[in-house]
Give the backbone structure.
Amino acid sequence: MDFLRNFFSQTLSLGTQKERLLDELTLEGVARYMQSERCRRVICLVGAGISTSAGIPDFRSPSTGLYANLEKYHLPYPEAIFEIGYFKKHPEPFFALAKEFYPGQFKPTVCHYFMRLLKEKGQLLRCYTQNIDTLERVAGLEPEDLVEAHGTFHTSHCISPLCRREYSLSWMKEKIFSDVIPKCEKCQSVVKPDIIFFGENLPARFFSCMQSDFQKADLLIIMGTSLQGRGLAG
């Protein structure tokens, strides 16, 4: 947090002799800045906290978080359910859990629609999301508006490096809700939603967009994440 405070102090010219971008460091001050001609390109960086009011648990909250409620899957440790090595050997726990929060069962929150409003006003440069619930898409953001840093359920692929056949959201949904482990129709390997597991690289789009977007941004809004988590959904 000290790093962020120093970064924003320098970037927003708070406490310096340079022109101040914010007349005061409050929500009202940010709102006035966003209504000015100086704020044209906004980046939103969002995590699991923006979806909890939709009924989707976050990952790390004590007692209510997802990791605190995985006893029934008999995992060696909670994070194993999202580790690629464990998934390849034991995919059953992940697909049982996926049924509980699969896209299509939840509606976007006011935070998601706030980002759509920014898009409609022409101010949204990009939304970087740690979430895998696809609610940004449901709210009306297009793929080009998004960097889904931890992947998405929107598409799935065969995990065999020699195959990698792609499957749709509806195909995967039918398998999961039929309590069937999704298998590739071509090679019979397991098919995994395109979410990023521990042990996998972030999408290439994350790195390519990050390099250019943050140099252009007039404002960075962080919602629903402490920026301290390692991996899925902050």
User: Anything to note?
Assistant: DSSP finds eight helices and seven strands in the chain.
